[in-house]
Design brief:
Helices cover 0% and strands 50% of the residues. The chain is mainly β. Strands 4, 6, 7, 9, 14, 15, 16 and 18 form an eight-stranded antiparallel beta sheet that branches. Strands 5-8-17-10-11-12-13 form a seven-stranded antiparallel beta sheet, with no helix packed on it. A three-stranded antiparallel beta sheet has the order 1-2-3, with no helix packed on it. A hairpin with a 1-residue loop joins strand 2 (9-14) and strand 3.
Amino acid sequence: MHSRWEQGNLVFWDTHRHRIVDVIGPNVIYRFANFGNVVQPNTIDPDGWTTTVVEAGAGTSEIDPSATQDVIATIVTAANENDGAQSQAPGAAFKCVSGIRFYLGLLFQTADPTECDLLFGACITDTTLLGGMSDGTYMEKLDAAALVSGVTEKDSSEEQTDSLGTLVASTDMYWEMFFDGTSVHFYVDGVLAASHSTTLCDDEMLRLSIAFLAGEAAAKTLSIKRLAGFVWT
């Protein structure tokens, strides 16, 4: 564990300087570091989050706490293509403007890295994050491939960098984004994969968001091991 002073705040980091573990100080405006604490048994809605569920097929799309070691929560889709769930945290706090710093991190794994859709990042309030969102800073993996992309988007105009990494079945993968006041830096498994300094969303407030959908007519599971977001000025 390491620490540094940044804009009057104490920033704790681990492994690399942009992997933020915690931020403490007078200018911290958003702190979220354990998805499992807000996931309650027998409900699809993390406490206070806005959740959109699709379940045209058999079964139920659910977000649940997990008793598995090192797994804080799971998203399990119903058994039809494009069944699944997306959740957006309360409080729109992320924005790409000078003076703001933010971090987003998701550690996860899935048994089927190809036949699923996954999106994680800071996004405008929207019920279809994987189908027409206009503003956000996010990473995604779309159906029929296992390749990861990094996207910054403003008013439906985007910069996208593809092939940042490849999901492997039942293997941990770490997606991270860090905004330093000028550019968004995308990390995959602790390695800097791309940086964007254009089409940054500077005119909308964004929410910590995650979406996971089945890519075929079979239930899919996403195991979440860490989900975090911090914003400070």
